[in-house]
Amino acid sequence: MTDMAHPPAAPAKRRARLGLLRRLNLSTWIGLVIVVALVLAAIFAPWLTEYSPSKQNILHQLSPPGDGHLLGTDQYGRDIWARLLYGARYSLTIGIFAIVVAMIVGTFLGMIAGFLGGRTDIVLMQVMDVILAFPALILGLALVALIGATMGNIIIAIAFTATPAFARIARAGVMTQRDREYAQACRALGFSGPRILFRHIMPAILPEVMVMSSLWMATAVRTEASLAFIGLGLAPPTPTWGGMVREGYDNILSSFHLALAPSIAILLLVLAFNLIGDGLRDVVDPRLKDAS
């Protein structure tokens, strides 16, 4: 029989999720809508355009918007709208996967450093400090130039530059939580170190890590676009937003729409991730919202 004094946990969890959704402000919802819209546009790109992103048509090169092409064509006669939709796949994939990798690796290293302390903490954090000493774009540029400009390598390079940020925030969270009463009670009960760290402490620091991940996704998108702009992105004719901006730069005076469309797309995606990150930060720590 079900104990009537203790209602099922599912309704309580459902109420907690609804409470979290209610605390999200309008700007966060705007950011979520933008990201979801871009993801859907990337997924359903073949149904949103009849043109191929790589098919050239010299007879229609540099066509203005509206002349049979929603956003016009580039110097090779390729449809800008099609390249924008298919380019979203690469920008989103690189940005999201790079930060997921950085979040997993950085959080793990930061948790180990914060929980064990001592020499392990010193060595790991000194390595992270050395990586942080280099600007993310410069370090990413050097890594991509060294290992090659493939999608996997670009993801690894961007993830490498973002890992120290997650390691530092995870370390700080673990050092705050490891001496609290619940952690001491777990030690008194004989729980192992890994169980205390990953089962009890990790859930307490995950909200801050998730906020960091949403903010760093904006940085990852900017870094990928910057690498593509300087020629270290995916090789043509693969459509990427940064590469489209670079190609449009050569014709900026006569056909400014070539660079304008992908620039606006990058701006919207970066803005959306920042809005989501700010909203999640306010939910995780309302004191920051009150202080601002």
UniProtKB/TrEMBL annotation:
Segments traversing the membrane: 24-48, 94-118, 130-148, 154-170, 255-277
SUPFAM superfamilies hit by this protein: MetI-like (SSF161098)
Membrane topology classification: Multi-pass membrane protein
Pfam families given in the database record: BPD_transp_1, OppC_N
GO biological process: peptide transport; protein transport; transmembrane transport
Keyword DNA damage attributed: no
GO cellular component, one term: plasma membrane
Residues covered by the ABC transmembrane type-1 domain: 88-277
Keywords: Cell membrane, Membrane, Peptide transport, Protein transport, Transmembrane, Transmembrane helix, Transport
Keyword DNA-binding: no
Primary localization class, coarse: membrane
Subcellular location: Cell membrane
Similarity comment: family membership: Belongs to the binding-protein-dependent transport system permease family.
Name of this chain's protein: Peptide/nickel transport system permease protein
Lineage: Bacteria, Pseudomonadati, Pseudomonadota, Alphaproteobacteria, Rhodobacterales
